[in-house]
Write a structure and sequence with these properties.
By secondary structure, the protein is mostly beta strands. Helices cover 14% and strands 43% of the residues. It is built from two helices and eight strands; from the N terminus they run αββββββαββ. A hairpin with a 2-residue loop joins strand 7 and strand 8. It is elongated, with a radius of gyration of 20 Å. The relative contact order is 0.24. The model has no long low-confidence stretch (mean pLDDT 88).
Length: 138
């Protein structure tokens, strides 16, 4: 029985099921809604986290994509405000994928990993009684 326990523990560690100090950013779901017929995605920054990357794309249409990367001029995003969409041409009847990376410079300078978190959501837009509505895709 003890041998079985030792062998099982070793195989769990060797297969990579245990990720102590995993440097990969954690993934979280962004929220999406519409406000006055405008699409609004929201994330939950913590501490000094700033937006360093933003991607919005229409599902199935690679030509309709917005991608922004910030280095020294990262954007501060309040927890109760919409992430800027920079005039992205959202249309009813289409599906979209949204992704942002938030990074903490303080964590990065201290060597804390992960220093970033990723927020994303996929959604479709519909018009209901003349108003734009967002529906989260699973």
């Amino acid at each position: 029985m003890k041998k079985l326990l030792v062998v099982s523990s070793c195989s769990i560690f060797l297969t990579g099921c245990m990720h102590l100090n995993d440097p990969r950013p954690k993934h979280f779901r962004a929220s999406v809604t519409t406000v006055t017929n405008q699409v609004c995605m929201m994330v939950q920054p913590q501490g000094d986290e700033k937006l360093i990357s933003l991607t919005i794309n229409e599902v199935g249409n690679d030509q309709n994509q917005l991608s922004k990367v910030y280095y020294d001029d990262a954007l501060t995003i309040p927890t109760d405000a919409c992430v800027p969409t920079f005039g992205y041409p959202f249309k009813a009847g289409k599906a979209y994928a949204f992704s942002v990376i938030l990074e903490s410079q303080a964590k990065r300078k201290q060597g804390i990993q992960p220093a970033s978190r990723i927020y994303g959501v996929s959604f479709s837009l519909w018009e209901n009684n003349g108003k734009l509505e967002a529906n989260v895709l699973q």
